[in-house]
Write a structure and sequence with these properties.
The complex is a heterodimer of chains A (662) and B (171). Chain A has a five-stranded mixed sheet, with helices on one face. The radius of gyration of chain A is 27 Å and the shape is globular. In chain A, helix 9 (208-218) crosses helix 12 (269-283) and helix 19 (495-509) runs antiparallel to helix 20. Chain A is built from 26 helices and 18 strands. Chain B is of the alpha+beta class and 171 residues long. Chain B folds into two domains: 11-67, Arc Repressor Mutant, subunit A (Orthogonal Bundle), CATH 1.10.10; 79-166, Glutaredoxin (3-Layer(aba) Sandwich), CATH 3.40.30. Chain B has six helices and four strands, in the order αααβααβββα. In chain B, strand 3 and strand 4 (145-148) form a beta hairpin. In chain B, helix 2 crosses helix 3 (58-65). The two termini of chain B are 20 Å apart. The relative contact order of chain B is 0.13. Classes of the chains: A alpha/beta (662), B alpha+beta (171). At the A-B interface, helix 3, strand 10, strand 14, helix 19 and helix 26 of A face helix 1, helix 3, helix 4, helix 5 and strand 4 of B.
């Protein structure tokens, strides 16, 4: 192991968890501060240089996160390691987080002195040798997807744009995600070298009340969905008399379509640990919890590791950085329940009970975990806290809209070219997110709606894409900002099916404690199901609306309170689609299985047999002509043939009483 | 994986499972998770042991075991195929994919696990890999997960074939 910035530079350094030095963070970067020694200063400078370019002056970064692993990053990593050892190359291989640009996964980043840093997109393991040879041996950057920085002396430089010059980067403001894809998420040293733990150092010197003032001055509002002012929440918790107090990070990111918390925690976990430590300090808590969603185990592992590392260097534990503040964190993995995202349900889950929400007030700030004053913040909020404390409230408050300050991460998925997570100042339009950052609809389809805010959110029609994303504007349009999931819905999707999908989700996830949510959602689902079968009647729509209003106003917690939003918003903007199902028995988007027929266009069929080979129901047979035909009495309408046909000869039609439209 | 999956499991000596876990009620979720990861599901005896260990009534442990999705009270397949039912995955074809999987594995309505106990097909909640939708995750017995992005009938067929081969002609 090489000497690390966090190690003692010489015998004179006295920092340890038992004898903490208040200047540990500053000293690690620009020290030594307690003694003067040129050797020690040089050691730090050399090490910082090493972190940038690797110990050997050349480095390959492989992103090690759920999204890149799903596209084969592990095999790419292995190929890199194998090739380097085979050729005996002096190159450091390190892991990194993810830039949030899912469409380039898996990617590789090559760094070496004297050449621009290059990123290669959609790397396959068998192309690894060629890429390494070309960049490190031939010093040729052609073929790179983007360059990170110019150093001015590389061939082929003109062919590759800088990352910051690309459309999807230029419009972003990487404030809280600044380290994502840049640092090694398992290295506390790299986090500190990138400015980490400056916020906590500063906070501990300011005192809790001044920290709360600073957060209030920044205007930070909770990024989990409700948008409650963070500083105010802290102030209320601090003012409670009961002790002990607790601080909780809500990492139960459950909204389908939202993965910014996972991305942050997998790419820059120390920022969350630091943020929670600051929250604990501000409210006067000594014990913290990070509650992680069961479906995101890598996120939990990274956070767990970050906690252990922080403890090792005295950034958690007793007398943190000599301030007299004691704080430790426990990472808890959920066992899977969407309702855990609701704060009172989450508290019940940490207590080891069924995750049943309870009536508020009292709010957790007054009576939370084990009946004690508890502050709960979302992961992204806490990452903002650490960044604000390091950079100052003014910088944060200068970003964003009048009502809501700062930036927010949005995950744009569905029918767009560049799926991924993007961070923008609050108040940009939905159009910027969907079209300029995510590249708009893929060829051949049109975006007809955008679903914002997950199952609690609503569907906004394409005509309203110029709406600004902030809490109030979206609410008035029938959606919510929620955790920031943005799913583009194309004309190949049916809005009634989308509404039914969300109710399938929320009715299954209803915890069952209160009746409106448990029964109401189920009944709403049955009505939607009836409509998608083509058996709906006009009066169903009225009942659906009434039920939606009842569930919304009488449910115990926000799960039921917001679950009708997808139904209400589609009724509001896409009534024509509901009517087509009910009055004509037609699904205009050809999605609802009961209303769709699959046919093979025999003029287009090339007789390859893919459809018949993949048909699970053996419903497709070969004709004497060598073409294929679907036996409608056997067809289960699974759509497999439609997907596998290489020439798109399988057609979907939805028609009532004959008169097909091809 | 230890113990036989289908028969009655012997939970007499599972105390070592809870090593390092403090005997506090709030560790119930973790205690149950450890039981499940050893037996592949939660046998009643295992729930009892977990409840005893962390110090809660069996009723509470049972209510927790039946509440959260990740716990299963019945044996599941050696390879758990979890099909993401998140928004992006739904819109991009996972509702077709799950039907495809169920039919190629010959699962009847309501049946979760193949009769040879090799595969089970389950709906799952969003894995947060929405950029790669539709996504399917295969939980392997050694605890390692394989995530498959942009899944379709062809890739899924290949995956099933791959695990069947691993099982050495078991199917």
């Amino acid at each position: 192991m090489p000497w690390s910035l966090l190690d003692k530079c010489c015998e004179k350094c006295w920092h340890s968890p038992k004898t903490p030095c208040p200047d540990f963070i500053n000293c690690s970067l620009s020290g030594p501060l307690c003694h003067s020694d040129e050797e020690c200063a040089k050691k730090r400078k050399t090490r910082l240089e090493q972190l940038q370019h690797g110990e050997k002056g050349a480095k390959i970064k492989v992103p090690w996160t759920s999204c890149t692993l799903a596209t084969g990053a592990e095999a790419v990593y292995q190929a890199v390691v194998d090739y380097i050892s085979k050729r005996g190359l002096d190159i450091t291989v390190s892991i990194s987080g993810c830039y949030g640009l899912d469409f380039i996964d898996p990617w590789l980043e090559f760094v070496t002195k004297g050449m621009p840093t290059a990123i290669y997109a959609n790397v396959k393991e068998n192309s690894v040798p060629k890429l390494i040879e070309r960049y490190f041996l031939d010093q040729d950057v052609s073929g790179a997807f983007a360059l990170k920085e110019k150093t001015g002396n590389a061939k082929g430089e003109d062919e590759v744009p800088l990352l910051s010059e690309l459309d999807f980067w230029r419009k972003q403001y990487r404030w809280v995600s600044r380290n994502c894809g840049i640092v090694d998420p398992e290295s506390l040293e790299e986090y500190i070298a990138s400015g980490g733990y400056k916020g906590l150092s500063r906070a501990l010197k300011m005192g809790p009340d001044a920290v709360i003032d600073e957060i209030q001055k920044s205007g930070l509002r909770g990024r989990g969905g409700a948008g409650f002012p963070t500083g105010l929440k802290w102030r209320i918790t601090r003012q409670q008399r009961g002790t002990p107090k607790y601080a909780i990070a809500n990492a139960d990111e459950g909204d389908p379509g939202a993965f910014m918390n996972r991305l942050l925690a997998e790419s820059d976990p120390f920022r969350i640990v630091e943020g929670l430590t600051i929250a604990g300090y501000a409210v006067g808590a000594s014990r913290g919890f990070i509650f992680v969603r069961a479906e995101k185990p890598l996120m939990a592992r990274r956070l767990q590791r970050a906690v252990e590392e922080a403890r090792k260097y005295g950034l958690l534990g007793t007398n943190i950085l000599g301030s007299g503040f004691n704080f430790d964190i426990e990472v808890i993995l959920s066992a899977g329940a969407f309702v855990c995202g609701e704060e009172t349900a989450l508290i019940a889950a940490i207590e080891g009970k069924r995750a049943w929400p309870r009536q508020r007030p009292p709010y957790p700030a007054e009576k939370g975990l084990w009946g004690q004053p508890t502050v709960i913040n979302n992961v992204e909020t806490l990452a903002h806290v650490a960044t604000i404390m390091a950079e100052g409230a003014e910088k944060f408050a200068a970003l964003g809209s009048d009502r809501t300050k700062g930036t927010k991460m949005f995950c744009v998925t569905g029918a767009v070219k560049r799926t991924g997570a993007y961070e923008v100042p609050i108040g940009v339009t939905i159009r910027i997110l969907v079209e300029e950052l995510a590249g708009g609809a893929p060829d051949g389809v049109k975006i007809k709606a955008v679903q914002i805010g997950g199952p609690s959110g609503g569907c906004i029609p394409a005509s309203l894409l110029d709406l600004q994303v902030d809490y109030e504007t979206l609410q008035s349009a029938g959606a919510i900002m929620g955790s920031g999931g943005v799913v583009a819905i194309s004309d190949e999707n049916c809005m009634v099916d989308v509404a039914k999908f969300f109710l399938t989700f929320t009715s299954a996830e209803s915890c069952g404690k209160c009746m409106p949510c448990r029964v109401g959602l189920r009944v709403m689902w049955s009505i939607l199901d009836k409509i998608t079968q083509g058996k709906g009647q006009e009066e169903d729509l009225e009942v659906l609306k009434q039920l939606a209003e009842t569930v919304r106003s009488t449910s115990l917690c926000a799960l039921g309170g917001t679950a009708p939003n997808p139904v209400l918003s589609t009724l509001r903007y896409f009534m024509d689609e509901y009517e087509a199902h009910i009055k004509k028995g037609v699904c205009p988007a050809n999605v609802c299985a009961a209303l769709v027929t699959y046919l093979i266009d025999e003029d287009m069929c090339i007789g390859c047999g893919q459809c018949a080979m993949n048909c699970p129901a053996n419903a497709i047979s070969k004709l004497a002509s060598g073409k294929y035909r679907i036996d409608q009495s056997l067809c289960v309408k699974c759509g497999t043939c439609y997907v596998v046909c290489p020439v798109r000869a399988v057609k979907k039609t939805s028609c009532s009483g004959g008169g097909g439209n091809g | 994986m230890e113990g036989s999956r289908r028969d009655e499991v012997d939970c007499a000596s599972i105390d070592d499972l809870f090593q390092g876990l403090r005997r506090e009620p709030h560790n119930l979720l973790e205690a149950l998770r450890r039981v499940q990861s050893r037996y592949g599901y939660l046998p009643l005896e295992g729930i009892k042991k977990a409840a005893e260990y962390v110090g809660v009534p069996l009723a509470q442990a049972y209510s927790v075991a039946t509440f959260y999705h990740q716990y299963s009270l019945e044996p599941v397949g050696k390879y758990r195929i979890l099909v993401c039912m998140g928004t992006a995955c739904h819109l991009r074809g996972n509702s077709l994919n799950i039907e495809f999987l169920r039919s190629v594995l010959g699962l009847k309505p309501g049946q979760k696990t193949t009769s040879d106990g090799i595969f089970s097909v389950e709906e799952a909640r969003c894995f947060g890999c929405c950029g790669l939708a539709p996504v399917v995750m295969i939980q392997r017995p050694e605890g390692k997960n394989e995530i498959v992005g942009k899944a379709n009938a062809r890739t899924l067929r290949a995956i099933i074939a791959k695990y069947r081969r691993l099982e050495g002609g078991a199917g």
